[in-house]
Structure formats: C-alpha cells, structure tokens
C-alpha cells in the first residue's frame, strides 16, 4: 500500500515563538473565566482540582500562554509531565508513527515501537538482573499493576506504603495512597491489605519505622512495600539518610519486594535518571509515567524483575491501548532526547542554582519561607502557614500574577511547587528567582494586593 505523503509543521497554530513571560490581563482573565464556566457545566467535578482557574492554550520551550494572551514561566509542567517543554518537534514522532498505523492492539499483535521502548527502559533503570517491562496508560494503573505482580509472586496480599504517598486513583493504587480522604465512600480495604507508616525524615523516626515494618513482615501477610523515593504531592519530602537501603535489606530478609514509584521523580527530574539512584538501591519494580512521554501521550511502564512480572498470567494486566505504538515511539524519543542532551545533569545544575538562590531568599524573609526542599528540578518552598493557612496558595497565586506559573501542594497545601521543564534556560531561571524574591518581600512586608487573596478564595479549588 502506498501511503500518501503528508506535510507537517511542529506548531501550526503558533504565529511566533513565546520569548518572554508577561502578564497584561489580571489572571484568570475573561476568556479563562468563560471556559471555566463552560467546563463546570459539562465536566464532572472529580476531574478538576484547579489551582488558578486559568485556561492554558499554547507553549514554547518553558513559556506557556493562557487564553487571555498572558505568558508565564512554567513551573508546574502539567503535574511534572511536560519535562521537555513545548513546541519541541516531538509531536512529529507521534504523527510519523500514527500515519502508518495508529494502533495495532499489542495484546494481540506485537509492534516494534513498544519492543524498542522496553529495551531502552531495561537499559536505563537500575540493576543488571533479568528485567522486563509491562505497559499501561497512567501512573495509577501502573502502581496497581505492580501491586498485582507483588501479590501474585509472593502469594501475600499485604502491602506497606506511607502516609501522604500518592500512587493514584484506581482500584489498588488509591487505597495504597496515603491521602485517606480520597478513599471516602469508595474504598474500605482490609487493614491487613494496606498498611500505612510514617514516611521517616530523621534518623530517629527511620529506626522506629523500620522496627514497625519488621513487625508487619513477621506476620507473614506482607508481600512488599510501595513508596516514592521522594514524596511529591506530599510536598517534596526526602527520606532519612539510609532509610531506603536499610528497608531493602530488611525486605530481602523476609522475601518481600520493594516497589518504587518514580511517576513524578523519574526521567531525569532530580538530576539522575531515577531518584532511587541517589540512594544506590536497586528496587524489585520501578514505576514510570508522567514525563515518560513528556506530556504527548498517555503511557506508563512497570520495569523490573522478570520473574516477578511474569508471575502474572496472560491478560491479567492488559489494556486495549497497552503498548500503543505512537505513544511508545514518543517515549523512546523522549528517552533519546534526555540522554543525548545530558538533561539530567542540566537539571542538577539548574537545580543547584535555584536552591542556592532560594536559600538566600529564605534567609532574607524567614517569616515567609520556612524550608527549601528537593533535588534537581523537583523543588519545593515550604511556606509559613502558622498565621495564615492560605499563605502558600497566596504565594503561588501572586507568583502567577507576576508571570511565573508555580504550583502548590502538600498535606496542608503549604509547599510551593517548582518543577519546570528540564530544558529550561537562563532567562526563565532568573525570572523564577526574581519573582520568588519579590513575592516573599511583599508577603513579609504586608504589601500584597488584597485582590490576590480574593482570587485565592474564589478560584483556588485545591
């Protein structure tokens, strides 16, 4: 069959590149508000946990534009998905594959892009044991699939995870998550199936948690631990030194598995391919999604011990779109760009600069910023909320008004989220630093515009 030749431009609707971050219409502007009203009429509330009610329509490199033509430095990257920024040509990889065959149904017919991606993931993930890959569509289903494999391999249903870990919103990933309110009225798992412990951040808590986990393992009902190497949605929380290494040793002694959720922290964001590599630990299973396709396609992967993954029978973990060829082709391209561009090292370098400057701002305005957290370009600013529970939301919203699109998260929504694309440039780095200092100064001196708080009360859903 002769395929028709097609012409393709990377960003057909863009009239020019977005070079600067500038806000001329106070956000959210009228076009964003109109789209918000339309959305509320036709989309279920559970699909939306908005920060600013701003509709984004375009992007270039690390700059994004909203429906009212404001432009921002992107520090949210679609929940840490768009790790290579915008308008970078990767969409052509998707189109090139899709024009030959958009979907073959890998559960029935293997395709080359999925096999090639699996080979690459086996190469770049920790450990030289016999590894395989299982594909899915999201971090949620991948975490669920990893739990299924753990249960089948060990014959034990019990899973240990941690308070404020976030692993998704599907049947197994949601009760494994440590945000209890997300289970209300939906899941009521048996206590022995999903066991929660404190995520230890000090040596004292580390030793206590390890002792408690060993007591759980002694029951013979626990098959493994699922954890984030760095907690993301909890507010960029790193484990106590040596915790993950000691945990892995403990699990091995009981024949239990370590599953590491790298959905947010992986793909070079922390300055290494995977955050677990900072701990020099090889997990039994590693879960990837979000940045795996740089935001271009829904795809996830479980990578790890072949004997564990192959304990699942045929079709026990399969979706219609498993190993979707265009998505797999995009993910392979993303891995190639990160590797050839040495972007993990670049993330480490820019991250070090941001951390250094944020620490200076913290020293200048300690009443506002309590702590600087994270590695590479997975950073957080813990904001003082003792006198104002909305302080972090206000900080982030004021940053948006000044053209830096921060996020915010944490158990108390008290951490400003700074996770820009790995391809960020010096202009955007300096803009982030400048705006962070300006907002901290305004908050310390009581100079914030009253409208900012009013907008937070009206438009900040999360």
Attribute tags:
single chain, 462 residues, alpha/beta, Aspartate Aminotransferase, domain 1, Aspartate Aminotransferase, domain 2, 2 domains, seven-stranded mixed β-sheet, four-stranded mixed β-sheet, 14 helices, 15 strands, 37% helix, globular
Given helix and strand content, the structural type is alpha/beta
Radius of gyration: 22 Å
The order of strands across the largest sheet is 4-10-9-8-7-5-6
Largest sheet: number of strands, sense, barrel closure: 7 strands, mixed
| Counted beta strands | 15
The general outline is globular
Give the CATH topology of the largest domain: Aspartate Aminotransferase, domain 2
| SSE succession | HEEEHHHEHEHEHEHEEEHHHEEHEEEHH
Name of the CATH architecture of the largest domain: 3-Layer(aba) Sandwich
Q: What is the CATH superfamily label of the largest domain?
A: Type I PLP-dependent aspartate aminotransferase-like (Major domain)
Written overview of the protein:
With 462 residues, this protein is α/β, with parallel strands linked by helices. It has 2 domains: 30-74 and 343-459, Alpha-Beta Complex (Aspartate Aminotransferase, domain 1); 92-340, Aspartate Aminotransferase, domain 2 (3-Layer(aba) Sandwich). It contains 14 helices and 15 strands. The protein has helices spanning 30-42, 77-80, 91-100, 112-124, 139-154, 173-176, 203-218, 243-253, 306-309, 325-340, 343-364, 391-401, 426-445, 450-459; strands spanning 56-60, 63-66, 71-74, 131-136, 158-162, 194-197, 222-228, 257-261, 285-288, 300-305, 369-375, 378-383, 404-405, 407-409, 415-418. Helix 7 (203-218) packs parallel to helix 8 (243-253). The model is unreliable at 1-15 (pLDDT under 50).
